[in-house]
Specification:
Number of helices: 14
Structural class: alpha+beta
Oligomer: single chain
Largest sheet: 9 strands, mixed
Number of strands: 20
Helix content: 25-40%
Distance between the termini: 46 Å
Radius of gyration: 23 Å
């Protein structure tokens, strides 16, 4: 198994800085290691040598899945990464064969699609990436340091480094670089720092979500004989805004996420949390929890709004600066696109650097603006279905929703429709694939049968196992 990435023979520059040790930041640092003689990763938190939760990732205790395109980027940046993640304990879930998925009143067919949901805890994923990153000879990690501002050229047309210090005070130091990558998350201070330098304030789009989800870790019950690895009870927007995801992670554990929109919130007491699963449209997750041992507290996360910073629209923008991940665009996490989109942004930065360092910031922000259009639309369309959500609805919004609802039903009845939808959801195909003439005809003519309505997963416990558990 490879443990390092070959360095380029003709690097774009001498030194690059990434600040923020998020998944997007770690991948970006790995990409930059191919284009610069030296790369420095700056992270405010202290980084432990192992998969540990950290303050800078408040959603770290919740379900995180990496989609196929995100894994493809990681495999390119860190050869052998997929195998290393599997050895560390990740579960590779075929998104249709291994995934019991209830949506729109029907269970989806259980057929192989070859596209995976890589399920593990967020700390494990970051640790495996970080371990590979630290093995690169030209990468230095400076943890326990916060960036306090940019250093610029005299005319402020170029970012030439960052100022940093120990959090809470202490002597400030300056690191110079030819490229600075902001991977500090949705709370990034780049908009304020650019404004203080005389640049216009970046335009932002916010779409309210008011999402609350609560997650808890469980030990996998020894009698569990389910024919699925992962189960999702999807919300029926906007009429039923409740959802549940039960995902396998490392060490024989399961992570349960319960969520709701606009005032619908999973209870945070033990009995209420379990009761919430009993009231869902299907009983299987509740049945599992009757035999599962909780391994920790119920962790809550509140997400107020989707946030997109339109750096691609700024008439002036300094060279030597590139925001990635949530610093550029932050999606409703329920749709599972965030980490993969961050990986694709890091990949785009590498592609822009292949054309040279000159003009890279301008090329990059234009390219990412185009890259974000599809996942942003996919993530916000569902949220805009709530009448109380403020935001500009796209043309033919009602017709699109009608077609989408009919397509979701078709995806529970027709294998071609299901596989097409999964490829779009996994960001492999564009949404236009959903509107092929063949699929449109199926949407208009296919209806569920009695057999379709009765199809369901096998019970999660065999009768003998259930009796043994009860005893």
């Amino acid at each position: 198994m490879s443990t390092s990435t070959p360095l380029p023979s003709t690097p774009a520059g001498k030194h690059a800085i990434v600040y923020g040790g998020s998944t997007a930041g770690l991948i970006a640092a790995g990409v930059l290691a191919r284009h610069f003689e030296r790369v420095t990763l700056v992270e405010r938190d202290r980084l432990e040598d192992g998969p540990q939760f950290r303050k800078g990732v408040p959603q770290g205790s919740h379900v995180h899945g990496l989609l196929t395109p995100g894994m493809n980027v990681l495999r390119d940046v860190f050869p052998g990464f997929r195998e290393e993640l599997e050895v560390a304990g990740s579960s590779f879930v075929d998104f249709t064969r291994d995934h019991a998925w209830f949506m729109g009143g029907l269970w989806r067919p259980r057929i192989p699609c070859g596209l995976h949901f890589y399920a593990q805890s967020r700390p494990l994923l970051e640790w495996v990436i970080r371990r590979r990153l630290k093995a690169l000879p030209n990468v230095t990690v400076r943890d326990g340091r916060e960036v306090t501002g940019f250093q610029t050229s005299a005319d402020k047309a170029r970012v030439t480094g960052v100022h940093l210090r120990i959090p809470g005070g202490g002597q400030e130091e300056t690191l110079e670089a030819e490229l600075v990558v902001d991977a500090s998350g949705r709370g990034s201070r780049t908009p304020q720092w650019l404004e203080a330098l005389g640049y216009p304030r970046v335009e932002e789009t916010h779409i309210q979500v008011d999402l609350v989800y609560a997650s808890r870790l469980f030990r996998r019950p020894p009698g569990l004989v389910a024919d699925w690895k992962m189960m999702t009870i999807a919300p029926q927007l906007p009429t039923d805004p409740r959802m549940a995801v039960l995902a396998p992670i490392e060490n024989g554990q399961m992570l349960l996420l319960l969520g709701g929109w606009h005032g619908v919130q999973p209870p945070l007491d033990d009995a209420g949390y379990i009761e919430f699963t009993r009231t869902l449209a299907q009983p299987h997750i509740h049945e599992v929890l009757q035999h599962a041992e909780p391994l920790g507290p119920i962790n809550i996360f509140r997400y107020s709004h989707n946030q997109r910073r339109h750096y691609e629209r700024m008439p002036r923008f300094p060279e030597g600066l590139a925001p990635v991940g949530d610093a550029f665009c932050s999606f409703n996490p329920i749709y599972g696109q965030g980490m993969t989109t961050g990986a694709l942004q890091a990949q785009a930065l590498g592609e822009c650097l292949r054309q040279g360092l000159s003009g890279v910031s301008q090329r990059y922000r234009r390219q990412v603006g185009e890259l974000l259009a599809t996942p942003w639309s996919m993530a916000t369309t569902g949220d805009l279905r709530f009448p109380q959500v403020e935001g500009k609805r796209p043309p033919a919004f009602a017709l699109t929703n009608w077609y989408s609802d009919r397509f979701q039903t078709l995806a529970c009845l027709d294998e071609e429709a299901l596989l097409t939808f999964v490829r779009v959801m996994q960001m492999v195909d564009q949404p236009t694939a959903l509107f092929s003439p063949r699929l449109v005809l199926k949407v208009l003519t296919t209806k569920p049968t009695a057999a379709d309505l009765e199809r369901k997963p096998e019970p999660p416990f065999a009768p003998a196992a259930a009796k043994e558990q009860a005893a």
